[in-house]
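Example record used in the benchmark description.
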Amino acid sequence: MKFAAIFVAAAALASAGSSFASERVSDMDYMKASRCKGLATTLTGVVDASSIDAYLKSARSSRSPAVYERADSEFDKAKREARSEDRKTRLTAELTGPCSAYLGAPASMAKR
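Model output (structure tokens):
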């Protein structure tokens, strides 16, 4: 009987831990969102950059300095790319496609 109670308690803790881990935004998603913010700030009128900024702010906790530096680098690179006239069509498609995953807070993304 004790074994069954311990097993049930361990399973409950494991499932609670896995749901918490799934809500945390990965470093890669954080860097991709930063790139999307760079595109949104340069390609004005396509997507509201403040919604991507809200995603980044809510996902900012407990990142290493290396992730922040890389995210800033991705932001700057995206801004430079978006200034190029011959890339605007492709980057607009990226902004309205894959970048739409970062429109809002990560908690609301899990519900979609």
